[in-house]
């Protein structure tokens, strides 16, 4: 199936399983999208894909440099060239142009696409008087600046880009792109392409995916490809078979019942965020700090756990939520507590023929939570230390404590010793002091280019007092 | 008012118009060098074989497996070079080296049908290395006495007497890091050879003429056999002043040897591991103040970490010396400069070009010393600003010192600093875990190339019979809006609407022997040249018009494309009609323009003279908030008043100020180059070699409240239409961010504590500063009341006297 590219039918026949969407677009002469970093950090390659949203669709901005071109099979794609022309600028392009939003212009097409996605977000509503305590990250037109958190500009210093974003009106009644959102997104198309010594396959069902993986255990499972794509581009990672599981219906459900929330492993973080709508506050605290909107539009919890990185941002939070991982293989399904899932650096109990199909977050949730991410940059950075707290109090005494840590050992881990100190102890500064000392000794932080081991250890030590201080502040009567 | 600075009525200059290519940018239509690949047939792709060692002799190389790799066409090695195997102008940068000088050094290049095949081929090249000891840090290089190039000294007054008489003495040591340019567009060249063996290289270069020279000398050709074109760059920032040449030469060599177009594009990893960056520096310093806290003497030895070759390190160092005092008058000064030779990328030009590093030293000193002097840092800075009549340490009068004071007052008032300081004090009193501070810092930055010969520009302006105008000039467009300004200059000088004028891509076969688009001088030099060409044409056309109207030429008016005559009842002529009349009268409708900056003189051996046409001035006030638990911080508000003269293009200039400020803040607070200094086999490897590990400012670093004003009544007599250069100076306004962080960290401790703060001031660095403030210790790197003499250069230290300056002297200039 060809791609509907800027309203024109475009065949994928020049792409092999390791060709990314950006290179394919550029090979077709659509050179607006650029390669700035080839790892989903700069957003110069941002393009729009029409993705499902209930029975309607959304214009979703993604990093074209990360996803396999073949995963666009049958999809609806728009680039900066498709949004408007120099003689007929799109409203986003118009605002960017007249306000000095472009200097060298290299990052601009990517910014335009990310901005257009937010422009068309259906629940973006003008809020002429933002509530007090406004964080400066939302415009009077409801524009969420985080939509641009995955786009880097080295020239402007961002102010004119923000002003362009905040000046946008609502799409006009006859806006063709807005009109298309009423239609359902193009369905996923079963795909099987062999080229350049590798195979790209999009199975139709989980059962088929499991079969394919069992056939080729060295196959690569891909959803948003936000990790895999980096390896392909920068480390020349190659796999004999790439299995796209991002649109498998079995992996895309989100279900809440009395004792748990089940989250499909292939839902993107953006989709989870929208569907949960704050139901799990600790996850709501995580999402804005997890990479960028562009990455969250591709990244999945299954992928974040599948890579097994000790510095992934979701494991500390999921550990504090005492989550479980649902694994499906040829022998059926099993559920593993996340705390038992990681076995070593980028290693886990997942067998080579198993697929992470869901996350199970048990209910009820702890009442008091926090997520502290220590990084050089506030938007879109990898943490040097991440700490997630989930605590219940009963009559001023800690009745339950789960603390998830990232970046302080070869795997994400639970701060068990500190949890034990806290449970049963009064919620006082004295307890916090003792527990903080214990927390400082959890893990084996190392020094690298992100932080020194001393700093990492110090951050473990201050995280609990910081949580306590925030807690006290929130408890104060307004 | 000079002829150069005078504006006609209703000029096109001064209008706030968007970037001339904005509508191409936003629609993805603007073409960059690599976008041309898909419009070119049969292109070969180049990929380097990179050294894994920081320092090693290449003892053998086997290419058989690489050549057997499907798709590989050729491997380029030193044996293929018909001309000079060197990528620079100092002859210390072999293009194909026999000694690997840093991790990532390209040893040879593989050409293949696809990028994939070239990468596979490069992986199949076998190189034998004999590892050698490597110097990775500037301290290691200093300890090993590993220096390169000149060791200039800038001296004024009697430093020893200054220290003997002053009452308050301090000395210390300060080492700070460099910065990666991270232009969004990485280096790229696309080379073709035509039927006449003419070499045509499209290159992302700030210095097409030098790219042309290097390509020619590598290929053994004359300059007229090589043409270099730069459509536009996706950012340059100095990183494409010197570094594109060797890459263009490799592509051109491949094209001449294979007869096919060759594309050489560095991906981000290659770009970061292979190309030069802003120099990190080390400084030993001692400083003296009098009883009134006035600077008396500064004695410092600064060492630029030059990396493996000289590149632009000498002029960068010269500018660091010439900006050591920033905006402050210091009677007695001695600055020794030297360039460490280390096994890292060859550090190069980066926006500010040594100026930021020089200023970093004095701003750090003032930030450290203010609490120890018992004076507010803002007052210490203000009271030491230059006054009119004072001279810089190299002897140039600071003619517009009043502008520093005006900008300072304007920022103090418009930023409402008095009220906000009180609010901040109250906030800090009531918040144990978060502290705020506002800091104000000035900038005085010299405009012109230190090296006088570079201060010339050329243009070629063509008027076609239909009245349309095409301008060519020697400057390159990298996002700074030079082309926009040049269109405005041409329209102003000719008296036509902007729409009448178009601009052609920068090419060496239109304007020869151009200077780099660098040193913020692009608009000054090329604007002067474009204006000159347009004025020649205008004068010829005015003659034609005066005959038509029967008036004296001085009574002819050309405005907005309408030609009229004072005192004539005749109907005005349309511009196109005048042009057509001129054509039929056989009047030449093209002109080469030229500009040289007058009044400059500089003796780089003695480090004395007037190297700068003028200074650009600015003042910034920045407020930050720091989290005491983590050292994390946010910039809350920035107020800037900056002197751009009489702006040629205000939207462009404000963009340069804001963008420069944020880029400077990136260097000072966030961006961290980390090299492997261990003894592991990865020693010398750049650990932050990707966007995921080297963090640029993003939206989260944009000041949410960002107020930029242009200094009023700021016309500059000595520059085109009264404007001033703007590219570099605003970067250094960002010292206010770092100093605010220092002050906020200090607020966690007792009053009067002097807080050491690393550069970049990352959250971790700020956390350690807070810890130091809480401990009340000011760090063992600072001596109070006594001083140590910084290391002095040997008596036979080489002077700074570039070859071009020697040639000029020989030529009797």
Automatic annotation (TrEMBL), chain A:
InterPro entries: 2Fe-2S-bd, 2Fe-2S-bd_dom_sf, 2Fe-2S_ferredoxin-like_sf, 2Fe-2S_ferredoxin-type, 2Fe2S_fd_BS, Beta-grasp_dom_sf, CO_DH_flav_C, CO_DH_flav_C_dom_sf
Annotated signal sequence range: none
Species: Flexivirga aerilata
Alphabetical UniProt keywords: FAD, Flavoprotein, Iron, Metal-binding, Oxidoreductase
One MF annotation (Gene Ontology) recorded for this entry: metal ion binding
UniProt protein name: 2Fe-2S iron-sulfur cluster binding domain-containing protein
Recorded coiled-coil stretches: none
Residue ranges of domain FAD-binding PCMH-type in the record: 193-366
Stretches assigned to the 2Fe-2S ferredoxin-type domain: 1-83
UniProtKB/TrEMBL annotation, chain B:
GO molecular function term, any single one: molybdenum ion binding
Cofactor(s) annotated in UniProt: Mo-molybdopterin cytosine dinucleotide; FAD; Mo-molybdopterin; [2Fe-2S] cluster
Keyword presence, Amino-acid biosynthesis: no
SUPFAM superfamilies assigned: CO dehydrogenase molybdoprotein N-domain-like (SSF54665), Molybdenum cofactor-binding domain (SSF56003)
Residue ranges, annotated region (Disordered): 786-813
Aldehyde oxidase/xanthine dehydrogenase a/b hammerhead domain segment(s): 27-133
EC number from the UniProt entry: 1.17.1.4
Keyword terms, alphabetized: 2Fe-2S, Iron, Iron-sulfur, Metal-binding, Oxidoreductase
Ranges of biased composition (kind: Basic and acidic residues): 798-813
Stored PANTHER family: XANTHINE DEHYDROGENASE (PTHR45444)
Family: Belongs to the xanthine dehydrogenase family.
Protein name as annotated: Xanthine dehydrogenase molybdopterin binding subunit
Organism of provenance: Flexivirga aerilata
Gene transcribed to yield this protein: xdhB
């Amino acid at each position: 199936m060809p791609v509907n590219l800027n309203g024109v039918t475009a065949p994928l026949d020049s792409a092999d399983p390791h060709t990314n969407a950006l290179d394919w677009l550029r090979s077709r002469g659509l050179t607006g999208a650029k390669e700035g970093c080839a790892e989903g950090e700069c957003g110069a390659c941002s393009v729009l894909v029409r993705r499902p949203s209930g029975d309607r669709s959304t214009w979703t901005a993604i990093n074209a440099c990360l996803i396999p071109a073949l995963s666009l099979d049958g999809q609806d794609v728009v680039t900066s060239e498709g949004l408007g022309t120099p003689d007929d600028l799109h409203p986003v392009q118009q605002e960017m142009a007249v306000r000095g939003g472009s200097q060298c212009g290299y990052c601009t097409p990517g910014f335009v696409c990310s901005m257009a996605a937010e422009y068309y977000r259906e629940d973006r509503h003008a809020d002429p008087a933002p509530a007090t305590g406004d964080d400066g990250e939302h415009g009077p037109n409801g524009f969420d600046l985080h939509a641009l958190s995955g786009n880097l500009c080295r020239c402007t210093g961002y102010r004119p880009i923000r002003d362009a974003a905040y000046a946008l009106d609502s799409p006009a009644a006859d806006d063709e792109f807005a009109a298309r959102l009423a239609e359902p997104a193009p369905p996923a198309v079963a795909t099987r392409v062999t080229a350049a010594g590798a195979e790209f396959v999009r199975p139709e069902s989980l059962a088929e995916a499991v079969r394919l993986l069992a056939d080729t255990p060295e196959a690569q499972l891909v959803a948003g490809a936000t990790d895999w794509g980096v390896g392909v581009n920068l480390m020349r990672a190659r796999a004999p078979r790439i299995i796209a599981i991002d649109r498998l219906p079995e992996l895309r459900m989100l279900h809440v019942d009395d004792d748990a929330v089940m989250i499909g492993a292939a839902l993107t973080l953006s989709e989870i965020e929208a569907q949960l709508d704050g139901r799990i506050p600790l996850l709501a605290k995580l999402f804005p700090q997890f990479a960028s909107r562009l990455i969250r539009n591709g990244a999945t919890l299954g992928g974040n756990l599948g890579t097994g990185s000790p510095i992934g941002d979701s494991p500390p939070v999921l550990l504090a939520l005492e989550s479980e991982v649902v694994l499906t293989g040829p022998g059926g399904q099993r559920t593993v507590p996340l705390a038992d899932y990681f076995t070593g650096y980028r290693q886990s109990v997942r067998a080579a023929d198993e697929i992470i199909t869901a996350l199970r977050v048990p209910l009820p949730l702890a009442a008091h939570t926090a997520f502290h991410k220590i990084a050089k940059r506030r938007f879109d950075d990898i943490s040097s230390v991440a700490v997630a707290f989930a605590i219940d109090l009963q009559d001023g005494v800690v009745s339950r404590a789960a603390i998830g840590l990232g970046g302080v050992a070869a795997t994400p881990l639970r701060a068990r010793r500190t949890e034990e100190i806290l449970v049963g102890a009064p919620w006082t500064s004295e307890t916090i002091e003792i527990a903080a000392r214990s927390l400082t000794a959890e893990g084996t932080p190392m020094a690298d280019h992100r932080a020194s081991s001393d700093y990492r250890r110090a951050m473990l030590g201050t995280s609990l007092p910081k949580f306590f201080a925030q807690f006290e502040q929130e408890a104060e009567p307004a | 008012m000079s002829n150069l600075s005078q504006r006609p009525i209703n000029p096109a200059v001064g209008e706030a118009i968007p970037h001339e290519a904005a509508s191409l940018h936003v629609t993805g239509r603007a073409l960059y060098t690599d976008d041309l690949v898909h419009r070119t047939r049969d292109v070969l792709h180049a990929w380097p074989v990179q050294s894994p060692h920081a320092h090693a002799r290449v003892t053998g190389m086997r290419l058989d497996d690489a050549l057997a790799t499907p798709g590989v066409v050729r491997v380029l090695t030193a044996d293929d070079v018909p001309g000079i195997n060197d990528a620079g102008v100092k002859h210390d940068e072999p293009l194909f080296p026999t000694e690997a000088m840093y991790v990532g050094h390209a040893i040879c290049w593989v050409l293949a049908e696809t990028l994939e095949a070239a990468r596979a081929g490069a992986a199949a090249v076998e190189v034998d290395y004999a590892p050698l000891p490597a110097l990775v840090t500037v301290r290691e290089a200093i300890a090993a006495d590993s220096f390169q190039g000149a060791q200039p000294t800038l001296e004024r007054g009697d430093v020893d007497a200054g220290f003997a008489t002053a009452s308050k003495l301090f000395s210390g040591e300060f080492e700070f890091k460099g910065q990666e340019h991270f232009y969004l567009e990485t280096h790229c060249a696309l080379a073709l050879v035509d039927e006449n063996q003419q070499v045509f290289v499209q290159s992302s270069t700030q210095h097409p003429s030098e790219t042309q020279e290097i390509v020619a000398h590598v290929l053994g050709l004359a300059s007229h056999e090589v043409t270099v074109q730069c459509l536009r760059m996706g950012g340059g920032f100095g990183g494409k002043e010197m570094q594109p040449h060797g890459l263009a030469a490799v592509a051109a060599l491949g094209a001449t040897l294979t007869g096919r177009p060759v594309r050489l594009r560095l991906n981000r990893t290659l770009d970061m591991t292979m190309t030069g960056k802003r120099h990190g520096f080390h400084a030993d310093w001692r400083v003296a103040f009098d009883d009134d806290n006035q600077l008396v003497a500064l004695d410092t030895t600064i060492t630029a970490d030059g990396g493996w070759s000289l590149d632009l390190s000498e002029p960068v160092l010269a500018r660091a010396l010439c900006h050591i005092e920033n905006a402050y008058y210091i009677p007695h000064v001695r600055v020794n400069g030297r360039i460490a030779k280390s096994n890292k990328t060859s550090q190069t030009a980066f926006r500010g070009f040594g100026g930021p590093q020089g200023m970093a030293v004095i701003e750090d000193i003032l930030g450290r010393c203010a609490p120890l002097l018992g004076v507010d840092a803002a007052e210490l800075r203000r009271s030491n600003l230059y006054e009119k009549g004072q001279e810089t340490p190299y002897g140039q009068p600071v003619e517009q010192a009043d502008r520093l004071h005006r900008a300072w007052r304007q920022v103090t008032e418009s930023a409402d600093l008095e009220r906000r300081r009180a609010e901040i004090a109250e906030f800090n009193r009531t918040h144990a875990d978060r502290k705020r501070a506002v800091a104000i810092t000035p900038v005085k930055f010299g405009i012109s190339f230190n090296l006088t010969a570079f201060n010339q520009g050329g243009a070629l302006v063509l008027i076609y019979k239909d009245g349309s105008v095409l301008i060519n000039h020697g400057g390159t467009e990298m996002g700074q809006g030079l082309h926009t300004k040049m269109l405005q200059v041409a329209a102003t000088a000719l008296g036509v609407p902007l729409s009448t004028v178009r601009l052609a891509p920068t090419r060496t076969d239109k304007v020869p022997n151009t200077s780099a688009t660098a040193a913020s001088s692009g608009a000054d030099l090329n604007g002067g040249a474009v204006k000159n060409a347009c004025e020649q044409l205008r004068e010829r056309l005015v003659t034609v018009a005066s005959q038509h109207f029967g008036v004296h030429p001085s009574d002819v008016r050309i405005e907005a494309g309408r030609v009229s005559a004072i005192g004539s009842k005749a109907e005005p002529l349309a511009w196109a009609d005048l042009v057509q009349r001129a054509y039929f009268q056989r009047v030449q409708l093209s002109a080469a323009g030229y500009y040289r900056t007058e009044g400059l003189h500089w003796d780089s051996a003695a480090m004395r003279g007037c190297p700068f046409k003028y200074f650009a001035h600015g003042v910034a006030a920045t407020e930050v908030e720091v989290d005491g638990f983590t050292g994390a911080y946010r910039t809350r508000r920035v107020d800037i008043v900056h002197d751009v003269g009489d702006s040629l293009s205000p939207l462009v200039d404000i963009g340069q100020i804001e963008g420069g400020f944020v880029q400077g803040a990136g260097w000072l607070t966030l961006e961290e180059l980390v090299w492997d200094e261990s003894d592991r086999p990865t020693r010398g490897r750049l650990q932050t070699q990707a966007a995921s590990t080297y963090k640029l400012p993003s939206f989260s670093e944009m000041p949410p409240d960002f107020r930029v004003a242009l200094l009023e009544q700021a016309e500059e007599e000595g520059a085109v239409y009264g404007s001033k250069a703007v590219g570099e100076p605003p970067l250094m306004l960002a010292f206010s961010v770092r100093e605010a962080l220092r002050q906020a960290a200090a607020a966690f401790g007792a009053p009067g504590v002097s807080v050491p703060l690393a550069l970049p001031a990352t959250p971790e660095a700020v956390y350690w500063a807070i810890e130091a403030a809480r401990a009340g210790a000011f760090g063992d790197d600072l001596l109070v009341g006594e001083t140590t003499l910084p290391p002095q250069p040997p008596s036979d230290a080489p002077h700074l006297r570039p070859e071009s300056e020697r040639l000029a002297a020989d030529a009797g200039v």
